Amino acid sequence: MSHFAKVIDGIVTEVLVISQDVVDSGMFGDPALWVQTSYNTRGGVHYGPDGQPDGPGLRKNYAGIGFIYDPVLDAFYAPAPYPSWGLDLETCLWVPPVPYPDDGGMYAWDEETLSWVKPTLPELTTVEPDPVVTKPAPAIVEPEAPVVEATLSTVTSSVGGQ
């Protein structure tokens, strides 16, 4: 089975796992709207089961709903994450105008300043837990069995019917 993306006006609207025969049958609409994509492709590279590159990728990237299909490039790519980012035509991945810092820190893109900024985290405060209040468990009270007093005369009279 293969993955196929339904492309309408250059935008991926659906991705299915189906065979070429099913696409060609028209069961899912006009076969001309369906373009094969590879789940194991990213940035123009195909990755094998071991996660290592093993050859060129099919149509640059795996198609996702909302992705763009460019028939001239014969490639799928995501919408631009920010207006300032440019599309690398070799990989069809978006590239920021400033490289990501390589100091091992965590950064987020700030479109207003066109730079990578360290995210500000909310200040953490210590909250004292409520004291644990322990209550004694309620006593388990067994229901008392009814006490029946019987004498020989009451037993004899009820059995003998006298």
Fold and architecture overview:
The protein has 162 residues and is mostly beta strands. It has one domain. It has two helices and twelve strands. It has helices at 20-25, 152-160, and strands at 2-8, 11-18, 34-37, 41-42, 45-47, 53-56, 68-70, 75-77, 86-88, 93-95, 108-110, 115-117. The chain has a three-stranded antiparallel sheet. A hairpin with a 2-residue loop joins strand 4 and strand 5. It is flat and about 100 Å long.
How do the helices and strands line up, and which of them pair or pack?
Blueprint: E1 2-8, E2 11-18, H1 20-25, E3 34-37, E4 41-42, E5 45-47, E6 53-56, E7 68-70, E8 75-77, E9 86-88, E10 93-95, E11 108-110, E12 115-117, H2 152-160
Main structural class:
mainly beta
Poorly predicted tracts of residues: none
Number of domains: 1
**Helix share bin:** under 10%
Rounded to the nearest angstrom, the radius of gyration is 36 Å
The mean pLDDT is 89
Shape: flat
H/I helix tally: 2
The secondary-structure element order is EEHEEEEEEEEEEH
- Determine the strand fraction and express it as a percent band: 25-35%
Oligomeric state as shown: single chain
Strand order of the largest sheet: 2-1-3
Outline the biggest β-sheet.
Answer: 3 strands, antiparallel
> Count the strands?
12
Distance between the termini: 92 Å
